[in-house]
User: Which sequence fits this backbone?
């Protein structure tokens, strides 16, 4: 790491994971993970169901405390941070949960403005305009007054992305954003992600299974494996698809059935 | 108005308003334009813009974005906000010096009028309409209750015929939760009720030297009324709410739908075991509450110099087996009502987390209303029949 430059955002990684061990109590899911995410990169975490992708994600953004190791977000250690320092790190990223996790008692616009109300000095009109912009980006502008329970699951996910972007964070964590979306919406979402990454320099950390979407957007992927309890492949998804000799990676990227492998 | 004054923080403002003449104005943006740095500045720029626009027509505003070091989504919303005000007033607007990488994002929101919807006017309901709707709700609610009662009766009859197919595991769980786990609170409350009841009665009776009648009076009141009523209210607070929350969460998670689409009756599956549990535990809990209350009353009267044996004899003279069984039958009815209403409110749950809370509240309120109703009907019947 280049420490000569004082402007840390240029020299540090968006996310730096050091010797991270993920698990619950004595149940270790992932051991000694080391990887970095560059600023502005679209970084995708892959792996079969139940291998601990979502758990890893929750460790990255500090919701769960890792069993061992550190996670540095823009150079700041979220694992060790406490109180106000931790809250500051927490506002530097946005999170979209797998099920959306929208607040059921608020309409979509209120869901998006909630964090703005708490952290900024904008007026209600200004926050509403900001929130409408976010909803427009995910194609939900006409639904701003709907309650989460009145819209479909895919729409809830998109609204959750809009909420995650409320404070224009530098990093967005998305847990399976395109699962359950129709192909058109999914393609729209991919293009929005690319736009935000290219034009605003937002870093994306995405858990996803959708191969088409991964090829379209990912700069870099890591693939996790349950048996290996760690990363079995790392790099550009298309390169991995075409050149990887690891049978597990080959099987994943080429959608080969389990029974055809043995 | 001093627009160029720094806003609240030590940082220089990210936007500065300047007017060259009456018709031309400029907003200069500089530094990091984001959701935090715009706080306050936005409002001031907007105020200056409004004041300037009021001066006359055909005004032209230039937004100089050449000194921006970074711009995020909030910054883009700010540009759109300024542009919209200008558009509405019929003035000209131009952005100069904006970095090319921000252009696609700005284009994404075209046409910007979409971002400024006309606020929907919520039609006001007249008094007659809202009264009518309230009445309709009441009728719907009553209809739901009657339908539910019918379904429940049918399924209870079914479960008597097909006794082996009742979900006895769920029944035991519900009975343990509503019955055994309720023993401490029922014991505590009925003990205190026993003490308070005889204490209050004794104060009045003492004036006439009639303390010895407090025992029979309290015992009769406890066995016929207070025991069943207090136990039922506790069951409503504990178990009716629990049933509503449990079944409500299942409804929210589509678990009830899964039962229906699997060809199973949710009433038979979810409601019957809980209602049977209510029927079982209510008389037992009531008997337990009666005994604790009477013991409490005996100890209280001891303080007034009435020995246990006098209390006991007086009680035997006043209370007979008919009074006890009348109280227990009423308790059983309360058990049916409280558990069934809890389940009904659970099944009526809407969607979302808040709906479960509403269902639990409605369960307790409806249970207590139903308890009082049943109690009233029962009082009328026992007055007419002498039971």
Assistant:
């Amino acid at each position: 790491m280049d420490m000569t430059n004082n402007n840390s955002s240029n020299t540090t990684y968006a996310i730096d994971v050091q010797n991270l061990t993920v698990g619950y109590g004595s149940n270790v899911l992932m051991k000694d993970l080391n990887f970095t995410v560059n600023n502005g990169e679209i970084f995708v975490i892959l792996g079969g169901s139940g291998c601990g992708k979502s758990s890893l994600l929750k460790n990255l953004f500090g919701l769960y405390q890792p069993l061992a190791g550190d996670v540095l977000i823009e150079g700041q250690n979220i694992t060790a941070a406490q109180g106000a320092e931790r809250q500051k790190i927490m506002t530097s990223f946005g999170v979209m949960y797998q099920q959306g996790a929208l607040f059921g008692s608020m309409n979509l616009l209120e869901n998006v403005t909630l964090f703005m109300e708490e952290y900024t000095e904008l007026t209600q009109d200004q926050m509403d305009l900001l929130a409408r912009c976010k909803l427009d980006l995910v194609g939900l502008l006409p639904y701003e007054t709907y309650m989460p329970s009145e819209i479909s699951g895919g729409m809830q996910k998109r609204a959750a992305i809009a909420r995650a972007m409320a404070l224009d964070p530098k990093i967005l964590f998305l847990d399976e954003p395109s699962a359950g979306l129709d192909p058109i919406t999914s393609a729209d979402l991919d293009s929005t992600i690319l736009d935000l990454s290219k034009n605003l320099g937002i870093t994306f950390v995405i858990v996803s299974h959708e191969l088409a979407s991964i090829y379209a957007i990912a700069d870099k992927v890591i693939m996790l494996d349950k048996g290996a309890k760690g990363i079995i492949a790392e790099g550009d998804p298309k390169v991995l698809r075409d050149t990887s000799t690891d049978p597990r990676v080959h099987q994943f990227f080429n959608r080969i059935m389990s029974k055809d492998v043995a | 108005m001093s627009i160029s004054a720094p806003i609240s923080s030590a940082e220089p403002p990210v936007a500065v308003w300047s007017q060259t003449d009456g018709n031309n104005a400029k907003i200069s943006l500089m530094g990091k334009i984001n959701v935090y740095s715009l706080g306050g500045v936005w409002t001031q720029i907007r105020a200056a813009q409004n004041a300037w626009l009021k001066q006359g027509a055909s005004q032209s505003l230039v937004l100089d974005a050449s000194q921006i070091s970074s711009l995020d989504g909030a910054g883009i919303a700010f540009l759109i906000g300024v542009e919209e005000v200008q558009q509405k007033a019929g003035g000209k607007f131009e952005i100069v010096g904006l970095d090319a990488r921000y252009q696609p994002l700005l284009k994404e929101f075209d046409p910007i009028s979409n971002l400024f919807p006309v606020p929907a006017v919520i039609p006001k309901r007249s008094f007659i309409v809202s009264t009518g709707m309230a009445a309709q709700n009441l009728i719907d609610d009553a209809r739901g209750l009657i339908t539910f009662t019918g379904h429940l009766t049918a399924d209870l009859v079914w479960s008597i015929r097909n006794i082996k197919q009742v979900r006895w595991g769920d029944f035991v769980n519900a009975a343990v939760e509503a019955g055994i786990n309720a023993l401490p609170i029922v014991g505590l409350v009925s003990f205190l009720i026993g003490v308070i009841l005889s204490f209050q009665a004794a104060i009045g009776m003492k004036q006439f030297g009639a303390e010895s009648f407090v025992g029979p009076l309290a015992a009769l009141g406890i066995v016929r009324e207070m025991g069943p009523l207090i136990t039922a209210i506790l069951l409503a607070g504990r178990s009716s709410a629990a049933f509503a929350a449990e079944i409500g969460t299942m409804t929210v998670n589509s678990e009830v739908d899964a039962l229906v689409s699997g060809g199973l009756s949710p009433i038979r599956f979810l409601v019957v075991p809980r209602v049977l549990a209510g029927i079982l535990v209510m008389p037992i809990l009531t008997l337990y509450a009666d005994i604790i209350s009477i013991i409490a009353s005996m100890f209280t009267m001891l303080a007034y110099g009435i020995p246990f044996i006098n209390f006991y004899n007086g009680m035997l003279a006043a209370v007979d087996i008919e009074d006890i069984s009348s109280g227990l039958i009423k308790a059983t009815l309360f058990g049916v009502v409280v558990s069934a209403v809890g389940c009904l409110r659970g099944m009526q749950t809407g969607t979302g987390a808040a709906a479960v809370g509403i269902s639990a509240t409605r369960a307790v309120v409806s249970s207590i209303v139903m308890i009082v109703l049943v109690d009233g009907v029962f009082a009328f019947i026992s007055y007419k029949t002498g039971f």
About this structure: The longest helix of chain A spans residues 183-200. DSSP finds ten helices and ten strands in chain A.
